[in-house]
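Table S4 entry, DUF4142 domain-containing protein.
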Amino acid sequence: MHRLLRGELFMLGGFVVAAAVTIVLVMPPSIDPTAAQSTDTSSGPVTAADRDLLVKVRQAGLWEMPAGDYARTRAESQRVKEVGRLIMEDHKKLDALTVQAAKKLGVALPDEPNPDQQRWMAQLAAESGPAFDKDFANLLRAAHGKVFTVVAAVRAGTRNSDIRKFAQEGINFVMRHMTLLESTGLVDHNELPEPPTPAPAPPVAMAVDNRRHA
């Protein structure tokens, strides 16, 4: 009797463990509810994507302004010096717009670049001459390409009129900077990320020649 009872308890324990494992495997990981939370403002809801845009543009300026200043003393090419100056001045204007929008919409902004950007700054700060010119053009061009996709996506879908206006300004700045960097003749386009593969086009229905059935 006792052995039978122990066997039943053992089997029951096995079922409990199996059920627990199944729950862990099937149930999705817990998601922070604040990640997708939106905040209502007079200009419309501010979503996580809207906040992320302001943060990323702020961080872009925090490393590109010093990088532009480095070009003044470290670049050999006069064109790189000029492009660095223009990008630095533009980012001062864009940073002011970012801070203004963030304050109005209640979005907290970082005070330092992200770790990748800090590494790029350190790399440029240690270089001079042709090596600086090449890395300056390519690091900044690649970074602008990444932030451009973020700005464009938010501009296309935001429900907030202030963010829409800000994103439009951001697109104009980023497009200008990509063009300026490419004007140095140093950007290696083969090293840039390829555009995403488009989704397969839906099949086209064959047209019916009604004349055959007339």
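The first strand starts at residue 39 and ends at 41.
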